[in-house]
Amino acid sequence: MIRRRGTLFVVSAPSGAGKTTLCREVRMQLPDLAYSVSYTTRAPRPGEKDGTDFWFVTEEEFRGLLGAHEFAEWASVHGNLYGTRAVALEEALNGGSDVLLDIDTQGAAQLRARYPEAALIFIVAPSMADLERRLRERRSDNEQEIERRLRRAREEITLWRTYDYLIVNRDVKEAMAQLTAIITAERCRVLRLALKFPDLEVPS
Protein backbone atom coordinates (compact mmCIF):
# COMPACT_ATOMS: atom_id res chain seq x y z
CA MET A 1 0.00 0.00 0.00
CA ILE A 2 1.43 3.37 -1.06
CA ARG A 3 0.73 6.48 0.92
CA ARG A 4 1.90 9.89 -0.12
CA ARG A 5 1.35 13.55 0.49
CA GLY A 6 0.52 15.48 -2.65
CA THR A 7 3.32 17.06 -4.66
CA LEU A 8 3.35 20.77 -5.43
CA PHE A 9 4.36 21.62 -9.01
CA VAL A 10 5.24 25.29 -9.47
CA VAL A 11 5.51 26.58 -13.05
CA SER A 12 6.95 30.02 -13.82
CA ALA A 13 7.86 31.79 -17.05
CA PRO A 14 8.29 35.24 -18.52
CA SER A 15 5.13 36.64 -20.09
CA GLY A 16 4.79 35.21 -23.60
CA ALA A 17 6.79 32.01 -23.06
CA GLY A 18 3.69 29.81 -23.27
CA LYS A 19 3.22 28.93 -19.61
CA THR A 20 -0.56 29.31 -19.55
CA THR A 21 -1.03 27.15 -22.65
CA LEU A 22 1.24 24.38 -21.34
CA CYS A 23 -0.43 24.36 -17.91
CA ARG A 24 -3.86 24.13 -19.54
CA GLU A 25 -2.79 21.28 -21.84
CA VAL A 26 -1.08 19.24 -19.12
CA ARG A 27 -4.21 19.45 -16.97
CA MET A 28 -6.15 17.92 -19.86
CA GLN A 29 -3.62 15.10 -20.22
CA LEU A 30 -3.36 14.50 -16.46
CA PRO A 31 -6.92 15.07 -15.17
CA ASP A 32 -5.98 13.92 -11.65
CA LEU A 33 -3.64 16.91 -11.37
CA ALA A 34 -5.33 19.58 -9.26
CA TYR A 35 -5.00 23.21 -10.29
CA SER A 36 -4.78 26.03 -7.77
CA VAL A 37 -6.75 29.06 -8.96
CA SER A 38 -4.93 32.25 -7.98
CA TYR A 39 -6.48 35.48 -6.76
CA THR A 40 -5.76 38.62 -8.74
CA THR A 41 -6.71 42.28 -8.84
CA ARG A 42 -6.30 42.56 -12.62
CA ALA A 43 -9.30 42.73 -14.93
CA PRO A 44 -10.40 39.53 -16.72
CA ARG A 45 -9.17 39.06 -20.28
CA PRO A 46 -11.62 38.06 -23.01
CA GLY A 47 -12.84 34.51 -22.36
CA GLU A 48 -11.54 34.28 -18.78
CA LYS A 49 -13.96 33.10 -16.10
CA ASP A 50 -14.02 33.93 -12.42
CA GLY A 51 -13.13 30.88 -10.36
CA THR A 52 -11.76 28.99 -13.37
CA ASP A 53 -8.86 31.10 -14.63
CA PHE A 54 -8.52 33.35 -11.58
CA TRP A 55 -10.52 34.62 -8.66
CA PHE A 56 -10.94 38.25 -9.70
CA VAL A 57 -11.12 40.54 -6.66
CA THR A 58 -10.71 44.22 -5.86
CA GLU A 59 -7.48 45.52 -4.37
CA GLU A 60 -9.34 46.15 -1.12
CA GLU A 61 -10.53 42.53 -1.00
CA PHE A 62 -7.04 41.25 -1.82
CA ARG A 63 -5.37 43.33 0.87
CA GLY A 64 -7.98 42.16 3.36
CA LEU A 65 -7.01 38.54 2.67
CA LEU A 66 -3.34 39.49 2.81
CA GLY A 67 -3.80 41.17 6.19
CA ALA A 68 -5.51 38.03 7.49
CA HIS A 69 -2.47 35.94 6.38
CA GLU A 70 -4.64 33.93 3.97
CA PHE A 71 -2.02 33.62 1.23
CA ALA A 72 0.70 30.97 0.91
CA GLU A 73 2.39 33.35 -1.50
CA TRP A 74 1.63 36.68 -3.14
CA ALA A 75 3.29 39.15 -5.46
CA SER A 76 2.84 42.39 -7.35
CA VAL A 77 3.30 41.76 -11.09
CA HIS A 78 2.89 44.32 -13.87
CA GLY A 79 0.99 46.59 -11.50
CA ASN A 80 -1.48 43.93 -10.33
CA LEU A 81 -1.60 41.74 -7.21
CA TYR A 82 -1.62 37.93 -7.36
CA GLY A 83 -1.85 35.37 -4.57
CA THR A 84 -2.48 31.71 -3.71
CA ARG A 85 -4.89 30.90 -0.89
CA ALA A 86 -3.13 28.72 1.69
CA VAL A 87 -6.13 26.76 3.02
CA ALA A 88 -7.16 25.26 -0.33
CA LEU A 89 -3.56 24.39 -1.13
CA GLU A 90 -2.99 22.59 2.17
CA GLU A 91 -6.25 20.67 1.92
CA ALA A 92 -5.33 19.34 -1.51
CA LEU A 93 -1.76 18.37 -0.56
CA ASN A 94 -2.81 16.74 2.73
CA GLY A 95 -5.45 14.78 0.84
CA GLY A 96 -2.78 13.31 -1.43
CA SER A 97 -3.59 15.41 -4.49
CA ASP A 98 -0.81 16.77 -6.68
CA VAL A 99 -1.28 20.50 -7.31
CA LEU A 100 -0.16 22.60 -10.26
CA LEU A 101 0.56 26.29 -9.66
CA ASP A 102 1.05 28.80 -12.47
CA ILE A 103 2.81 31.74 -10.78
CA ASP A 104 5.59 34.27 -11.20
CA THR A 105 9.15 34.06 -9.87
CA GLN A 106 8.39 36.09 -6.72
CA GLY A 107 5.66 33.68 -5.64
CA ALA A 108 7.78 30.68 -6.58
CA ALA A 109 10.57 31.83 -4.26
CA GLN A 110 8.08 32.15 -1.39
CA LEU A 111 6.72 28.66 -2.04
CA ARG A 112 10.24 27.21 -2.23
CA ALA A 113 10.83 28.50 1.30
CA ARG A 114 7.46 27.23 2.54
CA TYR A 115 7.48 23.89 0.64
CA PRO A 116 11.13 22.90 0.06
CA GLU A 117 9.98 19.57 -1.40
CA ALA A 118 8.06 21.30 -4.22
CA ALA A 119 9.13 20.78 -7.84
CA LEU A 120 9.87 24.10 -9.56
CA ILE A 121 9.74 24.27 -13.37
CA PHE A 122 10.85 27.25 -15.45
CA ILE A 123 9.72 27.77 -19.04
CA VAL A 124 11.44 30.06 -21.55
CA ALA A 125 11.07 30.95 -25.22
CA PRO A 126 14.04 30.03 -27.48
CA SER A 127 15.16 33.69 -27.60
CA MET A 128 14.15 37.20 -26.62
CA ALA A 129 13.22 37.82 -30.26
CA ASP A 130 10.77 34.90 -30.12
CA LEU A 131 9.38 36.17 -26.83
CA GLU A 132 8.80 39.65 -28.24
CA ARG A 133 7.14 38.22 -31.36
CA ARG A 134 4.75 36.15 -29.23
CA LEU A 135 3.84 39.14 -27.06
CA ARG A 136 3.06 41.21 -30.14
CA GLU A 137 1.05 38.44 -31.79
CA ARG A 138 -1.24 38.27 -28.74
CA ARG A 139 -2.42 41.81 -29.56
CA SER A 140 -3.56 42.26 -25.96
CA ASP A 141 -1.04 44.90 -24.82
CA ASN A 142 0.00 48.34 -26.01
CA GLU A 143 3.60 49.22 -26.85
CA GLN A 144 4.38 50.53 -23.39
CA GLU A 145 3.07 47.35 -21.75
CA ILE A 146 5.04 45.14 -24.14
CA GLU A 147 8.26 46.99 -23.32
CA ARG A 148 7.54 46.62 -19.60
CA ARG A 149 6.94 42.89 -19.99
CA LEU A 150 10.18 42.49 -21.93
CA ARG A 151 12.16 44.30 -19.22
CA ARG A 152 10.56 42.08 -16.60
CA ALA A 153 11.31 38.99 -18.70
CA ARG A 154 15.03 39.80 -18.77
CA GLU A 155 15.02 40.00 -14.97
CA GLU A 156 13.07 36.75 -14.55
CA ILE A 157 15.24 34.74 -16.93
CA THR A 158 18.29 35.35 -14.73
CA LEU A 159 16.58 33.26 -12.02
CA TRP A 160 16.31 30.04 -14.04
CA ARG A 161 19.03 28.29 -12.02
CA THR A 162 16.93 28.58 -8.85
CA TYR A 163 14.44 26.11 -10.39
CA ASP A 164 14.65 22.32 -10.59
CA TYR A 165 13.78 22.00 -14.27
CA LEU A 166 14.07 24.13 -17.41
CA ILE A 167 11.89 23.73 -20.50
CA VAL A 168 12.72 25.67 -23.68
CA ASN A 169 9.38 26.06 -25.44
CA ARG A 170 10.41 25.77 -29.10
CA ASP A 171 7.46 23.57 -29.96
CA VAL A 172 4.30 23.15 -27.87
CA LYS A 173 4.11 19.36 -28.35
CA GLU A 174 7.76 18.88 -27.38
CA ALA A 175 7.42 21.17 -24.36
CA MET A 176 4.24 19.35 -23.34
CA ALA A 177 5.99 16.00 -23.48
CA GLN A 178 8.78 17.34 -21.27
CA LEU A 179 6.38 18.85 -18.72
CA THR A 180 4.37 15.61 -18.55
CA ALA A 181 7.56 13.57 -18.13
CA ILE A 182 8.73 15.80 -15.26
CA ILE A 183 5.43 15.42 -13.40
CA THR A 184 5.36 11.65 -13.96
CA ALA A 185 8.94 11.21 -12.75
CA GLU A 186 8.42 13.37 -9.66
CA ARG A 187 5.39 11.28 -8.70
CA CYS A 188 7.63 8.20 -8.61
CA ARG A 189 10.42 9.68 -6.49
CA VAL A 190 11.07 7.45 -3.49
CA LEU A 191 11.35 10.38 -1.09
CA ARG A 192 7.72 11.26 -1.85
CA LEU A 193 6.38 7.76 -1.14
CA ALA A 194 5.67 5.68 1.94
CA LEU A 195 5.27 1.93 1.39
CA LYS A 196 3.34 -0.19 3.84
CA PHE A 197 3.08 -3.98 3.54
CA PRO A 198 1.11 -5.38 6.52
CA ASP A 199 2.49 -8.89 6.03
CA LEU A 200 6.13 -7.84 5.73
CA GLU A 201 8.34 -8.36 8.79
CA VAL A 202 11.31 -6.05 8.96
CA PRO A 203 14.23 -7.41 11.01
CA SER A 204 15.28 -5.19 13.91
Helix run count: 7
Low-confidence stretches at least 5 residues in length (pLDDT < 50)? none
* Beta-strand percent range: 15-25%
At CATH's second level, what is the architecture of the domain at 2-36 and 97-195?
A: 3-Layer(aba) Sandwich
Here the CATH topology of the domain at 2-36 and 97-195 equals: Rossmann fold
Shape type: globular
Radius of gyration: 18 Å
Encode the helix/strand succession as letters: EEHEEEHEEHEHEHHEHE
The total beta strand count reads: 11
Oligomeric status: single chain
Structural class: alpha/beta
* C-alpha termini separation: 21 Å
Mean pLDDT value: 91
CATH superfamily of the domain at 2-36 and 97-195: P-loop containing nucleotide triphosphate hydrolases
Largest sheet: 5 strands, parallel
Helix content percent band: 25-40%
CATH class of the domain at 2-36 and 97-195: Alpha Beta
Question: How would you describe this protein?
Answer:
The protein is an alpha/beta fold and 204 residues long. It has a domain at 2-36 and 97-195: Rossmann fold, CATH 3.40.50. Helices cover 40% and strands 21% of the residues. The chain contains seven helices and eleven strands. It has helices spanning 19-29, 59-67, 86-94, 105-114, 128-138, 143-157, 172-187, and strands at 2-3, 8-12, 34-35, 39-40, 55-56, 71-77, 80-85, 99-102, 119-124, 165-168, 194-195. A hairpin with a 2-residue loop joins strand 6 (71-77) and strand 7. Helix 1 (19-29) packs across helix 7 (172-187). The chain is globular, with a radius of gyration of 18 Å. The mean pLDDT is 91.
